[in-house]
Amino acid sequence: MSSTHAPSLPTAAAYAGFALVLVAALLTTLLFFITRPLIETAIAAEGAGGEAAEPGLVKMATVLAASLAFSTSVLGAAIGIALVGSASISAMVEKPELRVWGLILTALAEALAIYGIAIAFLILTS
């Protein structure tokens, strides 16, 4: 007699993780739109031959953008790896032939962190 399991619903921790990533993305977007006019003014003043109004503002915004790109991508990757990893282990218990798919899906979630590192590196070197 085979036992059938009802599909499990996402846990409260999964919803909390999703909400955390969503809030981080919204705060990053809001911060970008708040600081963008200040940065453009500083860059325009520097490009016009004059001194920038606040010389450290561009460097601060660059470091902030790189750190936000890295931290939000790593946070999203961690949540993705946790969810995909636990689901793939559960699936491998029932069907061992699914282990390749579990590794592939976990690698796709890990790629998000690698993209975040690449974007942070590009921001810091530009």
TrEMBL record:
It comes from the Archaea. The lineage of its organism: Archaea, Thermoproteota, Thermoprotei, Desulfurococcales, Pyrodictiaceae. The keyword Transport applies. One of its GO terms (cellular component) is proton-transporting V-type ATPase, V0 domain. It is found in: Membrane. Residues 64-123 form the V-ATPase proteolipid subunit C-like domain. Keywords: Ion transport, Membrane, Transmembrane, Transmembrane helix, Transport. InterPro entries: ATP_synth_F0_csu_sf, ATPase_proteolipid_c-like_dom, ATPase_proteolipid_csu, F/V-ATP_Csub_sf. This is V-ATPase proteolipid subunit C-like domain-containing protein. It is a multi-pass membrane protein. It comes from Pyrodictium delaneyi. The keyword Ion transport applies. Belongs to the V-ATPase proteolipid subunit family. GO terms for molecular function: proton-transporting ATPase activity, rotational mechanism. It holds the Pfam family ATP-synt_C. The chain crosses the membrane at residues 12-34, 63-89, 101-124.
